[in-house]
């Protein structure tokens, strides 16, 4: 729980991106493969900027930041990918026209520390709905 709170605080106050941390992350990931290191840095910086200025649900960023922060190193590219998938799933759930009980059960099952995993809720609800109509 402490890690989740720390990540939320980190992203909520994201005034500037720690480019040195991105460089360290990519250096550790790619070692002396300088071409891949440069590619990683470019991709991570672009993703970090995207996350910084994303205007959607802050809970989604918290979910994804928590999931893709390991030992205080953030994989911004994966956070961005996660945010895009979570937002798409949340939009699907918001437009849900199926059995409300299914959605309630799936939401309860896939919500941790008050943060819903929209992607898993969508997956759960779709599977439950499919089996209900068989």
Give your account of this protein's structure.
The chain has helices at 2-12, 19-30, 34-53, 58-67, 76-94, 100-109, 118-132; strands spanning 69-70, 73-74, 111-112, 115-116. Helices cover 72% and strands 6% of the residues. It is built from seven helices and four strands. The strands form two sheets. A two-stranded antiparallel sheet has the order 1-2. Strands 3-4 form a two-stranded antiparallel sheet. It has one domain (2-132). It is mainly alpha-helical and 134 residues long.
Question: Which characteristics define this entry?
Answer:
134 residues; mainly alpha; 7 helices; 6% strand; elongated
Task: Produce the secondary structure layout.
Layout: H1 2-12, H2 19-30, H3 34-53, H4 58-67, E1 69-70, E2 73-74, H5 76-94, H6 100-109, E3 111-112, E4 115-116, H7 118-132
Antiparallel strand pairs: 1-2, 3-4
Specify Rg, calculated over alpha carbons. Answer: 17 Å
The helix-strand sequence is HHHHEEHHEEH
- Hey, roughly how much beta strand do the residues contain? 5-15%
Tally of separate helices = 7
Q: How many domain modules?
A: 1
Distance between the termini: 40 Å
User: Roughly how much helix do the residues carry, as a percent range?
Assistant: over 70%
Overall structural class, as computed from helix and strand content, comes to mainly alpha
From the spread of the alpha carbons, the general shape counts as: elongated
Average pLDDT level: 86
Strand order of the largest sheet: 1-2
Ranges where pLDDT stays below 50 over 5 or more residues in a row are: none
| Largest sheet: number of strands, sense, barrel closure | 2 strands, antiparallel
Number of strands: 4
């Amino acid at each position: 729980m402490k890690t989740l709170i720390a990540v939320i605080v980190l992203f909520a106050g994201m005034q500037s991106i720690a480019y040195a941390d991105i460089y360290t992350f990519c250096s550790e990931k790619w070692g002396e493969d300088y071409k891949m290191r440069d590619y990683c840095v470019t991709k991570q910086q672009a993703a970090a900027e995207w996350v910084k200025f994303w205007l959607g649900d802050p809970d989604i960023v918290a979910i994804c930041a928590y999931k893709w922060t390991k030992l205080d190193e953030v994989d911004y590219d994966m956070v961005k990918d996660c945010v895009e998938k979570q937002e798409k799933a949340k939009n699907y759930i918001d437009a849900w026209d199926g059995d409300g009980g299914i959605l309630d059960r799936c939401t309860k099952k896939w919500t941790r520390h008050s943060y819903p995993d929209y992607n898993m809720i969508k997956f759960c609800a779709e599977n439950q709905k499919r089996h209900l109509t068989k």
